[in-house]
């Protein structure tokens, strides 16, 4: 009975903190909010890549608000509720209005491009049909009879148009993954080529067939068939330019996150800078570990502590020159710098010891909780079907026994802002539903995974800015460097061309591997 009461108190303590910590986080964000500085003085060209709407990146201000809390926050936290007043500056209002204008402009540009492509595609598919039907409508009585040959051409046009329709749907009608700052050059060239091609066919049709009212209907149908054949060849050209050209790797890009130096390498083909930026961002969300600003505060606090420990006393009175104080400060800083590596070593060793200790406690607590689940499952099998617990109820029943160990481990590794109680319960119920082991449950928390592993509102950045000295529509070249910026960090991309490899062949004579073993027999006399 006492164990059940302790379990309920632990569970209520966790819910108490999770309910009030969100208020503290919101107050911390409003308190620490400062207008971003404008970098208009930079000489690089800056354009924006906007992804589909989502919540902004979270975790920067919230982690700062949680720095001052100790490990026993479940017992020492005091929640203060009430009415708060918020202020906003003119620069914030201007920045918000600018973001709204940019989003509206990007939406208009995207829908305008889709509208133009749809109208042009409709014109392309209706043109061969119009070429065949107009003579039948305008001067049907004057047309020469066309029997089996025209019927075969009708079937050919129908199937070719069907193939062209399926190919166009597969190649062009896709859900857009992002809004790029400039037009896709090859796609724009293909649209212009198709427009000129169809316009020239209509011009020839109007001059040579409509004006003269040509009576050779078989020639008119063959003219429409030639148009469909040419459109199929243009579709093949589009496949080569849009899909096949970029498949062969030609460049190696190194992507470095500016805050913590995390880096990855990728191979790319012939792409423009803006499309290479999209490929980098797609791979970033699945390959890079989630950005955790709380891990960067240790070095900053250590440097601040060293500077705060320096004190200068003026023993000669207020009339002494300040140059002596500056020399004393420099000498003291040098002595502290010589001993700072020892402090860093012992800090890291102590942190590793604490992580290992709390990791062991967490593993034991989770194994005991899953053992309790097995006992519950054995008991549930003996009950009636209507009295069995669902996975959600089972997760809520065993969660309090592991909540404290999990909280302490997440705080020690500074992952607490990425795991809410609701997400942990959902993951626990998922593991129970699929009969997963304790190691499978702990994998998400013991090994910080890629960005996509976490909740979308915890990491998703709505807007990325592409900064490049070259035009973003130009192709990749050796030595190009461009930067992808978001709210809290930036990705620096360095492009290197894959070197030309000269491979030679050396022939080995099979007879050179043969040898003869000669034994010299010796007999005793």
UniProtKB/TrEMBL annotation:
Keywords: Cell membrane, Membrane, Transmembrane, Transmembrane helix. It is a multi-pass membrane protein. Residues 36-45 have a biased composition (Basic and acidic residues). It comes from Pandion haliaetus. Residues 19-35 have a biased composition (Basic residues). The chain crosses the membrane at residues 111-133, 153-172, 184-204, 224-244. InterPro entries: VANGL. This is VANG1 protein. Pfam families: Strabismus (PF06638). Residues 74-86 have a biased composition (Polar residues). Residues 1-86 are annotated as: Disordered. Belongs to the Vang family. It is found in: Cell membrane.
């Amino acid at each position: 009975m006492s164990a059940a009461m302790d379990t309920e108190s632990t569970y209520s303590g966790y819910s108490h903190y999770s309910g009030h910590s969100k208020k503290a986080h919101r107050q911390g964000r409003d308190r620490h909010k400062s207008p971003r500085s404008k970098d208009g003085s930079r000489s690089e060209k800056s354009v924006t890549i906007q992804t589909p709407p989502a919540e902004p990146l979270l975790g920067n201000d919230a982690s700062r608000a949680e720095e001052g809390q100790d490990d026993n926050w479940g017992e020492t936290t005091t929640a203060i509720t009430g009415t708060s007043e918020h202020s906003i500056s003119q620069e914030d209002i201007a920045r918000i209005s600018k973001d709204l204008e940019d989003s509206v402009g990007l939406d208009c540009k995207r829908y305008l491009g889709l509208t133009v492509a749809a109208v042009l595609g409709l014109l392309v598919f209706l043109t061969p049909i119009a070429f065949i039907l107009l003579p039948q409508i305008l001067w049907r009585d004057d047309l020469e009879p066309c029997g089996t040959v025209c019927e075969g051409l009708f079937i050919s046009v129908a199937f070719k148009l069907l193939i062209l329709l399926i190919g166009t749907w597969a190649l062009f009608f896709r859900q857009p993954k992002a809004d790029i700052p400039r037009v896709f050059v090859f796609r724009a060239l293909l649209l212009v080529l198709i427009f000129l091609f169809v316009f020239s066919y209509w011009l020839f049709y109007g001059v040579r067939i409509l004006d003269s009212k040509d009576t050779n209907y078989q020639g008119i149908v063959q003219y429409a068939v030639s148009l469909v054949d040419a459109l199929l060849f243009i579709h093949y050209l589009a496949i080569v330019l849009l899909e096949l050209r970029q498949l062969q790797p030609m460049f190696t890009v190194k992507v470095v996150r500016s805050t913590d130096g995390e880096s990855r390498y990728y191979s790319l083909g012939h792409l423009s800078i803006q499309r290479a930026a999209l490929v980098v961002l797609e791979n970033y969300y699945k390959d890079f570990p989630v950005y955790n600003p709380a891990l960067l505060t240790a070095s900053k606090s250590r440097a601040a502590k060293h500077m705060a420990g320096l004190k200068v006393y003026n023993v000669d009175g207020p009339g002494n020159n300040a140059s002596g104080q500056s020399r004393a400060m420099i000498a003291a800083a040098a002595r502290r710098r010589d001993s700072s590596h020892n402090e860093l070593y012992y800090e890291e060793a102590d942190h590793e010891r604490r992580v290992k200790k709390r990791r062991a406690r967490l593993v034991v607590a989770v194994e005991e909780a899953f053992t309790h689940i097995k006992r519950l499952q054995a008991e549930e099998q003996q009950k009636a079907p209507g009295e069995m617990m669902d996975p959600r109820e089972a997760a809520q029943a065993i969660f309090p026994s592991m909540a404290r160990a999990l909280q302490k481990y997440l705080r020690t590794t500074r992952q607490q802002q990425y795991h809410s109680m609701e997400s942990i319960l959902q993951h626990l119920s998922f593991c129970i539903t699929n009969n997963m082991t304790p190691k499978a449950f702990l994998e998400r928390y013991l090994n910080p995974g890629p960005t996509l592993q976490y909740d979308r509102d915890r990491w998703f950045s709505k807007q990325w800015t592409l900064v490049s000295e070259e035009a973003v529509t130009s192709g990749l070249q050796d030595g190009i460097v461009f930067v992808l910026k978001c709210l809290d960090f930036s990705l620096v991309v360095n492009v290197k061309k894959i070197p030309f490899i000269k491979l030679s062949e050396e022939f080995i004579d099979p007879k050179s591997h043969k040898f003869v073993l000669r034994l010299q027999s010796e007999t005793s006399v």
